[in-house]
Design a protein that fits this description.
290 residues, mainly alpha, elongated
Length: 290
């Protein structure tokens, strides 16, 4: 038998959904351990990790009757929320439901992630060694996935006066590339595939690396482009190189460009956080279904 225990106030619940309700309350419970210096986010996910009840341990937990049943596998659930999550995430029982909004994300959870500190965040540690591997995210050290940018879109980007910023906008429309969360003006976190963790990084470094990657993608787009004559090709490559090196060498230009890049990342911040939450939450749910 398993139970869930709040790592803030030691509240105990038999059902994970009850623990989530407890953690998501507007008026947060008080942290009992004065020496606890963990992030709210880490406490949140550690509280959602199941604990096995040792033999002889008496824990007074109210067990709710499971009344709802999955039509496909007959698994029973205590409430509609758990049933919907099972339908959405279980490989054997996944089906289309008009009442299920696939884009819902709890804003309270998002706020917790957005208030993240500058420490490195190992996803496996956050959920108590659930062996999470974020295969659906590209690492920030890798090239972005540009498969969503069609040949026609690439051509338009190459001829655009704002090709660098517009390229980033298009790149971030692919969920695999949502691997950056800017905490504030100076600090952010990025997902590193090699270490399978989110690492702290200065915003200026995030933006510098992003410009390097955008520059490379634009050069690649031009190499792969068709129906662009040699004269246009030479003009475009000169403009790309000029803007890139102006960014590297001119502090005022860098400051102006960085402000646009930050806006683009922040416009996608909720989606980046959602991706982070979905990855962790789906792994926990799949573990429950086993």
């Amino acid at each position: 038998m398993f139970y869930f225990q709040c790592r803030r106030c030691e509240y105990i619940s038999k059902q994970k959904i009850d623990m989530k309700r407890h953690l998501d309350k507007v008026n947060k419970c008080k942290i009992i351990d004065e020496n606890n210096n963990k992030l709210d986010t880490q406490l949140y996910f550690e509280s959602l990790a199941p604990n096995k009840i040792d033999s002889g341990l008496d824990i007074n937990i109210e067990i709710k009757e499971k009344k709802l049943c999955c039509e496909k596998c007959n698994m029973k659930f205590a409430n509609k929320s758990n049933l919907n999550r099972h339908i959405k995430n279980s490989k054997s029982c996944k089906k289309i439901s008009e009442n299920l909004n696939n884009n819902i994300v709890d804003n309270k959870i998002i706020n917790n992630i957005q208030n993240i500190g500058v420490q490195n965040i190992n996803i496996n540690n956050i959920v108590n060694n659930f062996n999470i591997n974020v295969k659906s995210l590209r690492g920030f050290e890798e090239e972005w996935n540009t498969s969503n940018i069609t040949e026609e879109m690439r051509k338009n980007l190459l001829f655009s006066d704002t090709r660098f910023t517009n390229t980033l906008k298009n790149i971030l429309e692919n969920d695999e590339n949502l691997n950056v969360i800017l905490k504030d003006e100076s600090t952010g976190i990025v997902y590193k595939f090699k270490n399978d963790e989110y690492e702290a990084m200065h915003v200026k470094d995030i933006l510098d690396i992003s410009m390097d990657k955008i520059y490379k993608h634009l050069r690649d787009f031009l190499k792969e482009a068709i129906n662009i004559d040699n004269k246009d090709n030479e003009s475009i490559i000169n403009e790309i190189d000029k803007k890139y090196y102006d960014y590297k060498d001119n502090l005022k230009i860098k400051k102006d460009v960085n402000s646009y890049l930050k806006c683009i990342f922040n416009d996608n911040k909720n989606k980046s956080v959602e991706k982070f939450i979905e990855t962790i939450d789906e792994k926990i749910i799949l573990n429950d279904d086993k």
